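> agent: user asked for a holo structure of the chain below bound to nicotinamide-adenine-dinucleotide. Plan: (1) validate sequence alphabet, (2) canonicalize SMILES, (3) run complex prediction with ligand conditioning, (4) return tokens. Step 1... ok. Step 2... ok. Step 3 dispatched.
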Amino acid sequence: MAVSIFLLFNNNIFFFIYGNRLAWPGLTPGSGEGGSRRMPKCLLLTGGAGFIGRHLSLELLTYGHRVRILDNLSEQVHGNTPLSVPPDVELIRGDIRDPETIAGALKGVDGVVHLAAEVGVGQSMYEIARYVGVNDLGTAVLLEQLIHNPVERLVVASSMSVYGEGRYTTGDGTPVRSVRRGVGRNASGWDPVLPDGTRLVPVPTDEEKEPDLASIYALTKYSQERSCLIIGANYGIETVALRLFNVFGSGQALSNPYTGVLANFGARLLNGQPPLVFEDGQQHRDFVHVSDVAQAFRLAIDSPRVAGQTFNIGSGHVYTIEQVAWMLAETMGQGEIGPEIMDKARAGDVRHCFANITKARDLLGYHPAQRLETALPALADWIRQSTAQDRGEHAKRELEAHGLVA
Ligand SMILES: NC(=O)c1ccc[n+]([C@@H]2O[C@H](COP(=O)([O-])OP(=O)(O)OC[C@H]3O[C@@H](n4cnc5c(N)ncnc54)[C@H](O)[C@@H]3O)[C@@H](O)[C@H]2O)c1
């Protein structure tokens, strides 16, 4: 016979149907994958109305957590699109830089996922004050408020951009440290080479690779990550940083040309325009599905013994940018358009960086379930059903006007 139980937890009421075992969706304490604790928590998602935050909200609700979102619904991301957050989610419209709003949003919260950020490598190279303001000052305000309203766990969204160039070896497998390339094309093409012209082989990048910040965006993501880990360690807040690689999936802001490679390509194709591909399109990246990213955040909230750690979150698979442009065009039935290879580099971009996800697999129990090949049809369907202004040319002209395309 099923028995109903109400439980008061940090001022929140949780409802259980109890028979032979707990039957809250996904809530089986102590039996989770990757050692997940699966205790119900009230979680604040800063920037939670964005692409990743909306997917993460659903994931957390499914696993029995309560979700509160703090988001300023930035015009660049949300435009005029009506916001859809799940009905059980509490939404506070406010700015991450406003201490009073943050203090209010933290009341009764057990954990925070810090997603709020300005997100765009190219744009960060001329809207510097805006990126530093939201990303660095915003994180500082959040951390000061966390000192007064501490939580059990803080998970911060960092980025692969903190690595700069990924790891490389020479042809015989010898690791090469601190690889960088100059602006524009060199004598050997777009790839970084050793001073004597020796070609290098890109290999998966692990968390031990030293950061090398090639854009203001990367600088602010590193600063967010480190600030959270420093304050977390000193105030007893278990803190985890996830370095996300290229996230894709439905719900990414199609009309925001400053972020999301596949969203940008999709907006172009939807408007009958070729995807704009910088350099020669042979840059290597790891495309990870947003549902796998949501899984990673949930594990980072629930897993024991991961405080103070940094994890790569990718798919573990690698593609070239030209390849994904063709794959999306063909899946959208626009194969005759194909990408426009611009043969110009964008300041702040790196040539090759893709993820070694061994640490996340081992310590978090993270198991990415999606491959780009199999997830693209659903993304293409969603794009076809959307309306999107193509602002790719506009964004390119802005970069050119600032001398950031060479
Ligand atoms: N999408 C990716 O490929 C990717 C890769 C690496 C890291 N990340 C990081 O993941 C996080 C989420 O990214 P996303 O793709 O969901 O981006 P997004 O732009 O869709 O979401 C960001 C959210 O933050 C909100 N926001 C912006 N400024 C704010 C402010 N001042 N106050 C409150 N809210 C504000 C926006 O309104 C938006 O809803 C970001 O921190 C981003 O740097 C994303």
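> agent: step 4 complete. Summary for user: Residues 1-36 have pLDDT under 50 and may be disordered. Residues 47, 49-53, 71-74, 77-78, 95-97, 115-119, 134, 138, 157, 159, 221, 244, 246-247, 253, 260 surround nicotinamide-adenine-dinucleotide (CB under 6 Å).
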